[in-house]
Design goal:
60% helix; alpha+beta; SH3 type barrels; 17% strand; 305 residues; disordered C terminus; 8 strands; 3-stranded antiparallel beta sheet
């Protein structure tokens, strides 16, 4: 019993001596640390704990943020694909959204680490403004290309008139639209003016109206001309029955103008136009009808005098 009590007392004394040595050692280390680095060991431990926590949170923000950016990019692709947006624009917009979100999460993670980003963001903003002013025309074309590919006022294969230029669209890029004229010249038009200006699309609608103004001589039988033109149109299967063709007596000027209107599929427009011209030119003369020009009418008037 006495031996046991003596043992416990000895152990207690050893523990006390160990604690005193540890305390003196820690104080000595802390003093040496503060003398060398300028701050205490306790402050260093607190800083390490805080920094470690912030680092863990920053890594979590990056991991989760990059996953969200990737998910949102795929969502954009699905939405735009359902909307039948141009494939090139889908790739560009999904990449743009993904990159912007990643940059946002990177900045957030850096801020979590305690690094001040205000000055950095201000510098980036100023640089962005300067670049935007320098490339204002290019950015306008880029915005125009996005609008064209999103809202599709025309597509590849359409014949359009824009900026007093007419041609068939062969390629729509993000900055420029390429058109071919009827004699196969290549026209490159910036997308900015196209998106912000007037545009005529000749082939967007499935059906178009074909117009003629047929000049015949004074004294010719207009009723006969009227009936013949309707006959020619009814025999052309490409001409729509509804709306019905329209023939009327038009302007009475240097010649008697017969106004003709008919509807046909857009792809048949020029064939219908040329076919009626051909029949009128080759058959009117045999029917006692005469095509005239203003000059011929003036000559006829002078001879009559």
């Amino acid at each position: 019993m006495m031996v046991k009590s003596l043992f416990f007392r000895l152990a207690s004394e050893i523990e006390k001596i160990g604690a005193e040595i540890a305390e003196k050692t820690e104080k000595g280390i802390s003093a040496d640390f503060e003398r060398i680095f300028g701050f205490s060991w306790t402050e260093a431990k607190q800083w390490l704990v805080k920094s470690g926590t912030n680092l863990i949170f920053a890594i979590i923000i990056l991991f989760v943020g990059f996953w969200i950016a990737k998910w949102v990019g795929r969502l954009v692709v699905r939405i735009l694909t359902r909307g039948k947006v141009d494939a090139g624009l889908i790739t560009f917009l999904s990449s743009l959204v993904t990159i912007m979100l990643k940059v946002l999460f990177i900045v957030t993670a850096i801020t979590q680490l305690g690094i001040e980003m205000t000055s950095f963001v201000a510098i980036l903003g100023a640089a962005g403004l300067a670049i935007g002013m320098a490339f204002s025309g290019t950015l306008s074309n880029f915005a125009g290309g996005v609008m064209i590919l999103l809202f599709k006022p025309f597509k590849v294969g359409d014949t359009i008139l824009t900026q007093n230029l007419q041609g068939t669209v062969k390629e729509i890029q993000i900055f420029y639209t390429y058109m071919h004229t009827s004699d196969n010249k290549v026209i490159v038009v910036p997308n900015g003016p196209i998106a912000n200006g007037a545009l005529t699309n000749f082939t967007k609608a499935n059906v178009r109206r074909v117009d003629w103004s047929i000049p015949i001589s004074y004294g010719d039988d207009y009723v006969k001309a009227h009936q013949l033109i309707l006959k020619y149109l009814s025999e052309d299967k490409r001409v729509k029955k509804d709306p019905a063709p329209f023939v009327a007596l038009g302007e009475l000027g240097a010649s008697v103008m017969v106004t003709v209107r008919a509807w046909a599929k857009t792809e048949d427009y020029w064939n219908v136009f040329y076919e009626l011209n051909k029949r009128i030119y080759t058959e009117f003369e045999n029917e006692g009808l005469h095509l005239t020009s203003p000059q011929e009418h003036i000559v006829q008037m002078q001879e009559a005098k």
